[in-house]
Write a structure and sequence with these properties.
Layout lengths: L1 E5 L4 H11 L5 E6 L11 H4 L13 H6 L3 E4 L3 H14 L2 E4 L6 H10 L4 E4 L5 H16 L6 E8 L9 H14 L3 H4 E2 L14 E7 L5 E8 L4 E8 L3 H14 L5 E3 L1 H5 L2
Parallel strand pairs: 1-2, 1-3, 3-4, 4-5, 5-11, 6-8, 7-8
Antiparallel strand pairs: 6-9, 9-10
This protein binds nicotinamide-adenine-dinucleotide.
Amino acid sequence: MRIGIVGCAGRMGRMLLREVAVLPMAELSGGTDRPGGYEIGTDLGTLAGLDPIGVTVGDNPDMLFGASDVVIDFTTPTATVGHAGLAARHGAALVVGTTGLSAPQMDVLRDAGTKVPVVQAANMSLGVNLLLGLVKRVSAALEASDWDIEIVEMHHRHKVDAPSGTALALGRAAAEGRGVDLDAVKETVRDGHTGPRQPGDIGFATLRGGDVVGDHTVVFAGAGERLELTHKAGDRAIFAKGAVRAALWAANQKPGFYGMEDVLGL
Ligand code: NAD
């Protein structure tokens, strides 16, 4: 199986190169990054902190998709939309970890899923995907009139989207548990004289700083007691390992739009 990596010069891209390079059952078909980026032409092995492998970072995703059975994409929403079209055109499966996609951008991924297998998840770690299931169960068990749900997340200073894709996924899981639409109840900004909290709202608080890989806590606050479910990512490798697992799985699936719960059989 041939696995390609777009955005291979990024924080996640380099991690993915390291994971794919050591797979016994797959080979690295290549890597691309943003045209004009200064890593173009650098050896992929060197970029990953390994020995040189004689293949360099390219800037032609069309060629990479043509040479791959599956491509892993942790880039930007605009780049990911372009990659989805290439995956469909070349018949390559696509694993998307990029966050911050708008609803129309998600529709482009779903559309590609009618032609090839597409796996998309805001968080590829096993722990967070288990947490999503727990949050849905807990929120279904607790009355919205008595229990307030708040989601707190912290990430490193370089993160560009907020709240994190994982925080929003946790919010969706909580909303699903209550049988409501997250967009109708989410409160992502509080500033100034906000008035009291509305029952049923799902609040978000975003912290940014340092090199935090990703912390998420879902707080269920009732009268006289509080339940907190927390996941802390200590190493980006958990996301890369999850993405590689998704890639190996996706390459053998029918066209479809899948999530990590499908990959992990949750
Ligand atoms: P990063 O900025 O370090 O890396 C992004 C890379 O994409 C950069 O090298 C950039 O040059 C490249 N890129 C941009 N446009 C491109 C294009 N048109 N073609 C090819 N490459 C292009 O960011 P990061 O920390 O690696 O995160 C990337 C994305 O993955 C973010 O959206 C982040 O939120 C998400 N992420 C998801 C998970 C998950 O488990 N799903 C985990 C961590 C990060």
